[in-house]
Amino acid sequence: MIIVIPIEIKIREFIPKLFLTYQILKKTNSKVLFAGQRFISTKIKEFKNVIYLDKCTHYSRLLENPYNLSENIVCMLDEEGPVSFFDNDTLHIHYNKKIDKIINHFFFWGKKDLLKLKKKEFLKNKSFILGHPKYDLLNKRYIKIFDSQINKIKKKYNKFVFFAASFDSDPDLNLQTLKSQYKTYFSNLSDKKIDIKIKNNIKIRKISQKNYFKTVEMLCSLARRNPNINVVFRKHPYEDAEDVLRRFKNKPKNLHLVYEFNITPWIIASHIYVHGGCTTALEASILKKKIIMFKPFKDNTLRESELIKLGEHFSNINQCIKVIEKNLNIVENKKS
Asked: Are 258 and 233 in contact (CB under 8 A)?
């Protein structure tokens, strides 16, 4: 039996998926094909007698994939988890009954995911708790694999504040494109109800962008107030690097824009972890890092309400900076 493990975003998935490959080879007699998703997707129709471990339950994409279902077994471990953080619309899009005949087994991160999906009857005998290899790597037995990267980061940035970005990657999505997508996702609903869902989607996108502008302002202010510390901003994998540079065009020299290595060594090496709604806060929590959520404008999503529990939350720039400075042992009474 050959197990096929595709990678879409190398910087995010390579190390966890390589670790998963290692564990499979160590504990079974299987062979593993470990490669880029685009390469594998062009070859999968030729595969026979393989277990294909896919990574996204978005059914509009799954329906287009030539899995050769009569010859292969398809399993799913969603990268965009945990499912327990999904709102109802996202849940519907990712776990629609249309994928029942495509996926043989679904793997989830934890018990709360299964509770969230208990009304999805077609998942009842197909669901298993697998966890996720990126969390297994945080175990002290394995975390040393990041030592080299951690040392490089610390040597370059010393004591630094790390911001993990998760802002909307496509806030100006064409309205007609959005309508077309939603009519596919919610084909059983009236146009009026679909329009309501679209308006809510656009509202959340706009809130995300407002938070982005405020985050740039906060980080630039923090860096200017404290020229002897480093502030590191890491973009989201789907975010365009040129857009990031434009947003931070007037940044101070001690504010750094990075996108190298897996995010885990950055979290470990940082003195304070800051985010605006990024699920890597779960990793920071496991690693017992100081967590600050800076989100001036709430979107009232389930994901937001869950992540806000993991640390301190601030909506005011000055209050957020003062708490960061306090945790960096920096004397207060500075000019903004």
From this structure: yes
* Amino acid present at 68: N
Distance in angstroms (rounded) separating the CA atoms of residues 261 and 303 = 25
Identify any residues that bridge with 108 across adjacent strands, giving them in sequence order.
129
User: Is residue 83 a contact partner of residue 52, using CB atoms and an 8 Å limit?
Assistant: no
Cα–Cα dist 153/147, whole Å? 10
Q: Alpha-carbon distance 155 to 172, whole Å?
A: 39
Q: What does the pLDDT profile of the chain (336 residues) look like in tens digits? A: 789 998 888 899 999 999 999 999 999 988 998 888 878 777 777 778 889 888 765 655 555 556 666 778 888 888 888 999 999 988 888 888 878 878 889 999 999 999 999 888 889 889 999 999 999 999 999 999 999 999 999 999 999 999 999 987 665 666 777 888 888 888 888 989 999 998 998 899 899 999 999 999 999 999 999 999 999 999 998 888 899 999 999 999 999 999 999 999 999 999 999 999 999 999 999 999 999 999 999 999 999 999 999 999 999 999 999 999 999 986 544 443
Q: Give me the count of residues in the chain.
A: 336
Q: How far, in whole angstroms, is CA 141 from its chain's centroid? A: 24
Whole-angstrom distance, CA of residue 205 vs CA of residue 196? 14
